[in-house]
Amino acid sequence: MIRRGFTLIELVTVIVILSIVSVGIFSFVGVGTRIYVDVTERDQILSEARFVIERLNRELRNAVPNSIRISDNYRCIEFAPIAWSSFYEDVAVAPQTASDEITVADLSGYQRQINDRVIIYPLQPDHIYLGSDSHNVAPDANPVSGNVLRLTSAHQFAADSPAQRLYIGRTPVSYCLLANNRLTRHTGYAYRDVQSESPTNAGIGRGVLMAQYVINDPLDANDRPFRLESATLNRNALVQLQLRFELNEELVVFNNEVHLPNVP
Q1: Do residues 119 and 169 touch, judged by C-beta distance below 8 A?
Q2: Which residues contact 9 (CB under 8 A, 6 or more apart)?
Q3: Strand partners for 173
């Protein structure tokens, strides 16, 4: 009787062939997995970048004219959102006697919030943040009666708007690039004369995380995340956003220009 089987050489040969095939299969799977991870990371960066750029675009376009300012360390951009805008019939302007009432064309739909600020003819950020040419809306139960806007006290504005335009600004909003490569949004704090360079030292809380992996170096003049070109006689104001995102050597750069309406 003849017994058939495999020799040791045949078994070793099969094991070697299977090992080579397995290495190839695992390498193929590993490359596919690496590609999937890379694509996922890039998609995450793109999603965060698109979200924060779109959010900034919308909010900056809804800012009170000439309310945008950038901190001295170029890490924060601050602005006053428009809560309402209308036209006024008359307002107390020097040397007229101060008044606590302003009659406007329309107030339907305006929902007052505490610390809202009436702003007329702002030509620079100081006119808004210093409070010398603006005034808070009255914090009483019925600050609006018909088309009359009632202030907390009698006030005398610095100048008339050529178009008799009036803005009501909400409390400021700041976007700040933190040292840990996070971009955060801060709101709910009062108007301040001097813009803070550090949200944690400004009493405005830790803020809401808007994006991660932002690696801009504000100390580099060519790598600042926020730039502001003030309005001129020939064009409106312009904010330039340059945000660089990096995650595991995946680098994405977003450049965006926001043209700002400038009708004070």
Answers
A1: yes
A2: none
A3: 79, 187
Q: How much is the pTM?
A: 0.81
pLDDT tens for each residue of 219-251: 899 999 999 988 776 777 889 999 999 888 788
Cα 198 from Cα 206, distance rounded (Å): 10
Strand order in the sheet with 117-120: 134-136, 117-120, 165-169, 82-90, 99-104, 148-155, 144-145
The residue extents of the domains of the chain are: 42-63+72-78+173-260, 82-169
Paired tokens of 257: 């220009």
